[in-house]
Automatic annotation (TrEMBL):
PANTHER family linked to this entry: SLL1037 PROTEIN
Highest taxon listed in the record's lineage: Bacteria
Pfam family, one: NMT1_3
Protein's recorded name: C4-dicarboxylate ABC transporter substrate-binding protein
InterPro entries named among the record's database cross-references: TAT_signal, TRAP_TAXI
Species per Swiss-Prot/TrEMBL record: Streptomyces dioscori
SUPFAM superfamilies named among the record's database cross-references: Periplasmic binding protein-like II (SSF53850)
Length: 336
């Protein structure tokens, strides 16, 4: 099957960035990375723990690619990928000093700065906005449910406890006028379990944040068949664009051909950040940033289609989460 082309809006951002950046700046930065790897500058060393997401899902795939590139560029660095439930768990691991880097939804990272999501705010710094994923809220193709408000009385899996999708999924139900656990029976299942529950008929809907197509959803789309619920109309109640500044939420359309009948459905794009604690060593943050820019094409999982970032203009767009000083220095170097 021919893979659908990425959406025009992110490609336009990339094109504009590369025109502004120019090849000279990339060459300068590329020389710095080569020097690090050749031993002229030894670069970072030690253990770097990266909290990702569920096994076989997008976060985990990105983490594996990042690990391979880091260890190739910096042989003294030992990277360890940790699979987790997702964004919220990753923030807790950073807070408890059990991870050094974490992949998180921007919306969840902001909520961790000062809401009732966690007992105390967790200070975070961003290495960059690495890509955008799609919120994919699906029901079986033969379901009478046409929009989120129709889910009253229907069991829904909002994602594993500790995932960003679970946090945002509950907000989506509220935005549609539904109270989770009262109007809608809610389960918190890992994606693979949620898919089996949908096949068995014990859940009627599930939500996931990820690239497209997600293999698990592709399998469900073949059997029993899926319908993708439109979500963009709920954006004003979620803090996207018209609401909370820097939320990382925006309207996007599912790409044609990603799934059998999802093309053009207006859903919500969620930007994803690579974050760390404020005390991550300056040199590590700087090296990470250089690698994100220079090895961008190697850091997009093969099955991902649609909105992608990983260029300087978008990497620095981290919303309400401030850049780590080491990352900011690397970006300044890029821009001359």
């Amino acid at each position: 099957m021919t893979r659908p082309r990425p959406e025009s809006r992110p490609l336009d951002r990339r094109t504009l960035l590369h025109a502004a950046l120019g090849t000279a700046a990339v060459a300068v930065l590329g020389g710095a990375l080569t020097a690090d790897a050749s031993g002229l500058r030894p670069g970072p060393s030690g253990v770097l723990r990266i909290a990702t997401g569920e096994p076989t899902a997008f976060y985990e795939a990105f983490g594996r690619l990042l690990t391979a590139e880091l260890e190739s560029a910096y042989p003294r660095l030992n990277c360890r990928v940790r699979t987790t439930a997702g964004s919220l768990t990753n923030i807790e691991l950073l807070r408890d000093r059990r991870a050094d880097l974490g992949l998180v939804l921007t919306d969840t990272a902001l909520a961790a700065q000062g809401t009732d999501l966690l007992p105390r705010p967790v200070p975070l710094r961003a290495i960059g906005r690495v890509y955008e994923t799609y919120l994919q809220f699906v029901v079986r193709a033969d379901s009478p449910v046409r929009e989120v408000a129709d889910l009253a009385g229907h069991p829904v899996s909002l994602g594993a406890t500790g995932s960003g999708a679970a946090v945002l999924g509950a907000r989506i139900l509220h935005a549609a006028g539904l109270t989770p656990g009262t109007d809608v029976p809610v389960l918190h299942l890992p994606l693979a379990d949620a898919a089996e529950a949908m096949r068995a008929g014990s859940v009627d809907a599930l939500i996931v944040a990820g690239g497209v197509p997600l293999p698990t959803l592709s399998d469900l789309d073949e059997r029993p068949g899926l319908r993708f619920l439109p979500l963009a109309g709920l954006l004003p109640r979620l803090g996207g664009r018209e609401g909370r500044a820097g939320s990382g939420l925006e309207e996007v359309s599912l790409p044609q051909g990603a799934y059998r009948s999802a093309g053009g459905v207006a859903t919500i794009g969620v930007s994803n950040l690579l974050v760390c604690r404020p005390d991550l060593p300056h040199a590590v943050a700087e090296a990470l940033t250089r690698l994100l820019v220079l090895r961008a094409s190697a850091l997009v999982p093969d099955n991902a289609v649609g909105t992608q970032f990983l260029d300087v203009g978008s990497l620095i767009g981290t919303g309400g989460i401030a850049l780590h000083p080491g990352a900011a220095e690397a970006y300044r170097t890029l821009h001359g």
